[in-house]
Amino acid sequence: MSSQPFTLKWGILATGGIAKTFTKDLLIDPSTRNVTDIRHEVVAAASSSSTSRAQDFLTDVGAPSSAKAYGSYANLAADKNVDIIYIATPHSHHYQNARLCLEAGKHVLCEKPFTVNAEQTKILIDIARKRKLFLMEAVWTRFFPLAREVMQFVGEGRLGEVKRVWADLSFWNDVEKEFGTGHRMVNLDLAGGALLDLGVYSLTWVFQILYHLQPLPRTPPIVSSTMTKYAPTGCDSQTTVLLTFPSSGAHAIASTSLHISSVPSPSHPSATPAPVRIQGTLGELTIASPIYRPTSYTLIPASNAKRGKLADFEYATKEFEVEGGGHGMFYEADECARCVRDGKGESEVCPLEESLEVMRVMDGVRGAGALVYPGGLESVEFPLEV
Ligand SMILES: NC(=O)C1=CN([C@@H]2O[C@H](COP(=O)(O)OP(=O)(O)OC[C@H]3O[C@@H](n4cnc5c(N)ncnc54)[C@H](OP(=O)(O)O)[C@@H]3O)[C@@H](O)[C@H]2O)C=CC1
Ligand SMILES: O=C1OC[C@@H](O)[C@H](O)[C@H]1O
Questions:
Q1: Shortest-distance Cα residue to atom 25 of ligand 1
Q2: ipTM attached to this prediction
Q3: In the chain, what are the domains?
Q4: Rg (CA), the chain
Q5: How many A from CA of 296 to the centre of ligand 1?
């Protein structure tokens, strides 16, 4: 391997909240997290509204003055200096934006949920594979050091056989006051709703443990669900998914709500069960809030004296710090750089087939709840104005 770090040149598509957070993380020196084999360069950003908005964004995040500002996403996709594009538009636009970039020959990291439905995701995967481009859904949670450690712990069988996973991501919002009807969280025209926005994290924890760790070929879950709508817009405001994984018989409950909180009182963390509980025959591993940015887990050995085999771990809580003063989005960015450097079309930590399976589950849940997105949002036609 060369002693020079590999540089990945990023273009940022959209200039909203998460684009800002992600780009700031890209600009943090990787050595602050002990990474020396790769580095990131922000070479361009685009806004669909104006070049000046893109320029303000670049200035705001502290990008180098050489970074180019574009007033159209197509111009960004055509920039020969850009290796990979981070897509940070609302859900409704992911398929169109990601496809635009892939068709222009760019590697793509696309915010969650990957697309509005599985059919759209499948088409993006096919294009990326055909064109030998890297593609990944930006499920940043999977790349946190905590998540890597938990996966190793469970994968080594230290919890025994995992029989059940509970996962909940619910925010206690004053939905009417905070979101009204136009906000992307609840706006049907932007493919809003609890399931696609927050429930995808609950499903991520379920899938990491009960799907990703299955021996190959993996078997998808059998799914049932219930959903309550937010009357002013018709999106889902509360959704619960029950999953059975046939190869192990394990169950999962993945839930999300916009009206109640998984952790109503963060200052009294032990007053409510942990939002993620991984329950094995030898004990339980719980993950503290926020489950999308995980920094604390607890091990609870089963202490039933009648049991033949006992856990090889003690009761303990382990805390992690996000290094370098960032938000933690650089962990997924580092994975992108290593995959592109190594000529990989996808990440083994966040495989395309797994993102597709999660999209299929969400399709089924939306089908059961009669949640259909309007206009061309569910269409695979390209290009299509949405
Ligand atoms: N990983 C994470 O932790 C998080 C992920 N997300 C995901 O990131 C995506 C964006 O969320 P967030 O940054 O909060 O959203 P914002 O509303 O803050 O930003 C979205 C941006 O998309 C662009 N855009 C293009 N078309 C539209 C349109 N019709 N309506 C609104 N915006 C449009 C705009 O940028 P411009 O005008 O420059 O084109 C806008 O600033 C979502 O998919 C969300 O699920 C969100 C928050 C956290
Ligand atoms: O992806 C997300 O995670 C964090 C939340 O704050 C945000 O609303 C959601 O989109």
A1: 89
A2: 0.99
A3: 6-139+328-350 (3.40.50.720), 145-321 (3.30.360.10)
A4: 21
A5: 28
